[in-house]
């Protein structure tokens, strides 16, 4: 049996791959080269030896490069040199990733555009080097790494190193003056920044971060009104352990703190099962032979209805659960409450009477453990979401001038798109949080 099953599986796989390739071919003919390439890639994921998919992908990628170079030229002719440079950088990165070589007219176009970009890159590098914002220059090098290398001007940038190092060290020392007291995130950032510019500094802070926590304790308040609470108790204990792990992985936790965060996790479950005994009847037909009234010597078949009476137990279940956590962090209440209820009707009997098509019936009771688990599972994600939201409320609001740097760094951890965060970074370094995060592994 295994061999036919293997052949069938292989045939289905090949059919699916063929379908993807055919779809890719149609998109390619419509000029949708990027979408076609994605389908060829999917086909190769399913069958890495698919020659048609491999050939289609190579041709589609070549068309993507062609179209990209046309866009580069159009952007340049419109004097949008930044857009042209970004587009050409993407093309060069893709060529390296896809291991593609350019030939003929494509190679000539790319070479021509690289020549135009050389002029713009040299001018841009010189302007940035003298702008006294060394991080803009570093981001320029990172952003256009492939373009600078292909334009063969990477080595030329070394002449600006002394200027950049001087500006970087000066910025480091300026930032270091603001590191004191409770500015633990600023200290971490300045340490990385100064290390990158090879400028030694001594950064002094308070011994403990008073805004965060070294330990977390979660007290369980359990009210489990169920007939067998062992499994439910285990689930609650496991959830409590997960919440501790979530807190310890959050921004609120640090070894540099001293205080303990305290929460209560409340679980209140009530369950009632009512039983009612009754009798039910099942009507069924039987065939008997009886004397024919028209002819006493004959017997005829007669269908007769009979009733089978049997005992039944009917159950009614009532389940309700109230779950939640609460605690106080930095003077703000963090809490979540949720409730649910279930009502279930079921019945059972032991009747086993084939003539009436009756078989024993087992009651389908609520699975209390599965019910509780389904209600506990979202708690972990909700707790993490609430911790981040509380952090956002604490540090992503407009703050006093003396704490703006610390708060911008703290806020950036949960909301790197926050205007307040990026305004501070652009003002201080000339680039946004995303750029600085890439340069200094924030």
Q: Main sheet: which strands, in order across?
A: 1-2-3-4
Helices and strands, in order, run as HHHHHHHHHEHEEEHHHH
The major sheet is characterized as: 4 strands, mixed
Molecular shape: flat
* Average pLDDT number: 92
The portion of residues forming beta strands comes to 15-25%
Structural class: alpha+beta
Describe the structure.
With 442 residues, the chain is α+β, with helices and mostly antiparallel strands. It contains 14 helices and 4 strands. A 4-stranded mixed sheet has the order 1-2-3-4. Helix 1 (2-29) packs antiparallel against helix 2, helix 2 packs antiparallel against helix 3 (51-77) and helix 3 (51-77) runs antiparallel to helix 4. It is flat, with a radius of gyration of 37 Å. The two termini are 57 Å apart.
Task: Summarize the SSE layout with pairings.
Blueprint: H1 2-29, H2 33-46, H3 51-77, H4 81-98, H5 104-129, H6 134-143, H7 145-150, H8 161-176, H9 184-196, E1 213-225, H10 230-248, E2 259-292, E3 295-329, E4 332-348, H11 368-395, H12 404-412, H13 419-429, H14 433-440
Parallel strand pairs: 1-2
Antiparallel strand pairs: 2-3, 3-4
